[in-house]
Protein 1
Amino acid sequence: MKRKLMVGLIVVVLIVAAMMFLGCLEKEQKMSFAEIKATVLANVEEIDTYKFDLNTTTRTLLSNETNSTEMTTSINGRGVLDAVDKEMKLNMNTSMETNETTEVMEMEIYLLNNTMYAKLNLGIPGRPAQWTKREMPEESWASQNQLEQQMELLNISEVELLVDEKVNGVDCYVLKIEPDMNKFWNSTMGAAIIKSAQSSALGVDIKKMMKSLSMKEWISKATMYPKKTQMAIRSVASSDDLAIPETEEKFTMTEDMEVELLFYDYNQPVSIELPEGAEGAVGQPLIPVLNQTTQNQTATTSV
């Protein structure tokens, strides 16, 4: 009799648990991607500080009539951002690998008081790392705020809700984001990329080069804050697209970039201070390649 009673109680408990689970599931399913999008955009307005990890891989294929060269560029970085005081710190390690060589460099970037400080270590014996600095216009801050850029893309894009996934053990909604490219080029991120390309010596028409851009966003169910972002960007350019002498050999360059950002430690106290030596930084523009790398990697991500 007792055994039957216990079995009966267990069955009742299982049924109640199942009903509770199904009730929760039904509640989650009723939350549309439009509601998720609206909630995330609203929540981000309350974020004052956060940390992020940045990982990018760019595969470049340069081809001409006789041969081709492949290069893989990998960037691993970790950053801290204070949206209230408009300060940022980012440490990056970069490796550029071809069939013949591998080059490694380290970079530290600080943004304080509308000034960007950068320290580049090329790992060349006898050539010590040097701090440089340049003034940043007030409006350029938005191009450095990783999270704000992701939310701007989310706001101008077509969004599809995918199957839920876990990120580091955290239950997340997964959003597939396809940006409206016309709106993208008018966005903060698009404007930063265009400006960076225009400032280079190659006269690149970046709008013509970029062939595709897609993104996935993982949103924590517990906080409704972004947890992870992945982007895929393809760019194709030929020598005809660039401002180079016609006497140079014709070529085509294809770049496939994959970007991943992890966001964490929201609204936790942070301290961003210039390291020793940065105050004496040389006041000169960064070299064009460094300028473009900084804008693309810190802005898009970047791109």
Note: The CA atoms of residues 236 and 254 lie 4 Å apart.
Protein 2
Amino acid sequence: MNKPKLAVSSCLLGKKVRSNGDAAEFRPLNRTWSEHLELIEVCPEVGIGMGVPRPTPRLVKDEDRISLIDPMNGHDYTDKMLEYAEVQSDFLVASGISGFVFKTDSPSCGLEKVKVYRGDNPQAVRDGTGLFAKVFTTLYPHIPVIEEVSLSDPLQEEHFLARVQFFNEWLSIGKEGWTASRLVTFHADQKAFLLSKTPDAMRSLDKIISKLFDSDEHPEHVALNYVTEAQMHLSALNKRERISHPMKRVVS
């Protein structure tokens, strides 16, 4: 089976691209995962021309708008980041990535609890999402994402890797073009895995499969709807699953 491709914030792979000129290497990615996954590095802040080192940009909320601001000179990077995020996200998905590992707390890449500043208040509230990460997850909600801090938990690590492998298998079959037969076969092959991870999802996924035979919707659209629904359910980690996915055993 081909190596799944995984997009990763560059600093986690040991690249010295952080605001202070350092890296934030997450060793399991560099030392173990790289043997079994094709890792594609991404640094949105460097990608839009921010230097290294640089002032740490801030997320600033003004009414309903979240902006990416240089706190030293007030320069607004929002539009540039939004444009870059859309283009780069499309590129990464077109290249066939099966997941994305984002840098925790980053104003560009953090998935949750990123500092957001409001008005003249010097105290930030941790209720934001990095601007690049927000665009990526909005455009492609069916692709598994996680922050590296969560990968320190073995259960979350296993769960994420299982989602990556599930999506990679979906991509591999879809390369030949989706047909009703291929989607039904994929669903049957994944039944034990899905039941072990998210039994509540089976009813909605069964309905999507049934829709193939009850409507004229193109199988490609049904397949995308299927994997989006599956990943929505898989994103919730509720319990210790009964089935350990092969990908976890490979990278351990």
Note: The first strand starts at residue 5 and ends at 9.
Protein 3
Amino acid sequence: MSSSSAISCMAFLTRALVRAQVVRHDRQLLLEVELVSGKANRARINKSPLPRAREVVGTLRTVLFAPEDLALVRGDPEQRRRLLDELATTRTPRLAGVRADYDRVLKQRNALLKSAVASRVKVDDSTLQVWNEHLTTIGSELLEARLNLVADLRPHVRSAYQQLAPGPKHAELAVRASWASEAGELTLARGELSRVEIEQRFRGALDDARREELARGLSVVGPHRDDLVLSLGDLPAKGYASHGESWSFALALRLASFALLHADGDDPVLVLDDVFAELDESRRARLADAVASAEQVLVTAAVAGDVPGSLSGVGFTVEAGKVRRDT
């Protein structure tokens, strides 16, 4: 299988239309996503409207690496959660609905807690319990999906990191649930807990956090507070990894995502957005070698000399708002 694309964008004051011509499973598809200010996004495949824009997810699979990805290692947990959820949704598009449902329930539950704090009126236990059940049911499915993904991703991360930064340090990753004890269980693995057991732990954590949540007016337990723990050897990457090691780990996460999708039987489009400028010469060469097997690679660079010569292909130059094909 393969995915390839040619993308165009028309921008207006209040509207944008993005089109991509995609070849997938030997079928040619025209994808269109319309963004309209103040209204819901709309999507079409071969001019046929989709009931929900999110149903276009997974049709064109891409893996993007950009300079901002250093935050995957050094930044807040939100960046790492987004990495997991976007990759999980790419592999299993129905998870887009699970994520949307979780966000909706979380928003409603937070509104209930916040109103109780603002009005100083005791929250209705039966109403809160209803939202607790929704949160634990949907949240446990989301957490289980993350655990399964990390288990599948782990060997690819180890391999990619060794390819980029050969040496004695090995890259490791695991999920830390928001209800895990700092002194006890810090991370979870696939199969360690059943879905029922995850729900039970989640439900118990909500009971334990009740007083704090009512005092603060927000939900402090759930997948929205989980983290992806990254380690190099026996130490956490965040706070201990050098600048070069952090870059290598961030790259390894993206390359592992690409390898995992490829192992699933797909050939995603790999996009490297001005990343070579951030790397030393040895890492540039190793990254070029790592992506050589990709069917379609899109590379952007502010300085053409930053891109290793081994990545040859069709080139375009953008200057003063004009695009020309290199000769």
Note: Helices lie at 71-74, 77-91, 95-119, 125-164, 195-208, 210-216, 243-263, 281-291.
